[in-house]
Amino acid sequence: MGEFALSADRLSVKRGGLLALRDVSFEVRAGEVFALLGGNGAGKSTTLLSFLGLLKPEAGEARVLGQSAHENVADARKQIAYLPEAATLYPHMSAEENISYFLSLAGVRRDKSAINAALERVALQPAARAQRMERYSKGMRQKVAIALALLREAPILLLDEPTSGLDPIAIDDFNILIGDLARSGSTVLMVTHDVYGACQVASRIGLLRAGELVGVFDAPADGRIDTDAVHAAFAGRAAS
Ligand SMILES: Nc1ncnc2c1ncn2[C@@H]1O[C@H](COP(=O)(O)OP(=O)(O)OP(=O)(O)O)[C@@H](O)[C@H]1O
Ligand SMILES: [Mg+2]
Predict the structure, then answer these.
(1) Is the pLDDT of residue 83 over 50?
(2) What is the pLDDT of residues 169-185, one digit of tens each?
(3) CB-ligand 1 contact for 40 (6 Å cutoff)
(4) Which of 18, 120, 128, 180 is the most buried (most CB within 10 A)?
(5) Residue among 168, 122, 126, 170 at smallest CA distance from 145
(6) pLDDT tens-digit readout, 142-165
(7) Distance between CA atoms of 223 and 231, rounded to whole angstroms?
(8) CB distance 64 to 79 below 8 Å
């Protein structure tokens, strides 16, 4: 198992007394972008929380670099930068202040030029950076949350709906950024509802339905996963 950055091994997890994941197995190789698709309540966020070691498996394991995440939470967390589904940043603080504050909570120090470079990468308007976030649009807030995850400089990124609230151009920019990160060796596991974006950026896509992994799509060599096939499987019908 050691060769995989992340692996779910027959993972079953309960939320609120019911199985939210049932016998889920998949692997994410180092330097790969793996996208998890599925409808609301399918178990996508539960899968990410399992790799953070925050949920005790009912059966099976979520492994980070071959080690049980749940049994080695501190080790797992050192390898991972996590973008939560609803990232909370403080409205009375600027983007720069929020980032410095949350990095310091994580025990990470980055200088102003590194923070500016991250905000540049996510294309947050320079004029907004020192302004309080209370009047930021949803997309601007999401860009700051993505920049914060990047600044952790962890080898593994777990991103829960990173493109939620972004416009199509910002989504394209984000996908290019994720592709660059993977080429430079980062491993990315991202949850998304964006089938098109997932096919643009992922080398593999896993489809969750009611807690079960019902399909895995592989990109062909030098090609992309077929959007129509994934969309059809997502919608539960044959590709036309
Ligand atoms: N804190 C909780 N307590 C009880 N049940 C929960 C809790 N969180 C999630 N669940 C249940 O676990 C299942 C999986 O939830 P999960 O959040 O993983 O879904 P998801 O695929 O991320 O959905 P979405 O697209 O809506 O974010 C759902 O049935 C949900 O109701
Ligand atoms: Mg979710």
Answers:
(1) yes
(2) 889 889 998 998 999 89
(3) yes
(4) 128
(5) 122
(6) 999 999 999 999 999 999 999 988
(7) 17
(8) yes
Asked whether the beta carbons of 35 and 74 are under 8 A apart, the reply is: no
d(CA 162, CA 193): 10
Q: How far is the CA of 130 from the centre of ligand 2 (A)?
A: 31
Residue ranges and CATH numbers for the domains of the chain are 4-89+156-235 (3.40.50.300)
Nearest-CA residue for ligand 1 atom 24 is 40
Q: What Å distances lie between residue 220 and 21, 33, 50, 176, 199, CA to CA?
A: 28, 14, 29, 19, 11
- What pLDDT band is residue 106 in, cutting at 50, 70 and 90? confident
**Percent of the chain topping pLDDT 70:** 98
Q: Tell me, using a 6 A CB cutoff, whether residue 60 lines ligand 1.
A: no
Provide mean pLDDT across the span 190-196.
Answer: 93
Q: Which residues contact 122 (CB under 8 A, 6 or more apart)?
A: 143, 144, 146, 147, 150, 173, 174, 177
Rounded Cα distance between 49 and 191, Å, is: 12
- Spatial CB neighbours of 107, under 8 Å, sequence gap ≥ 6: none
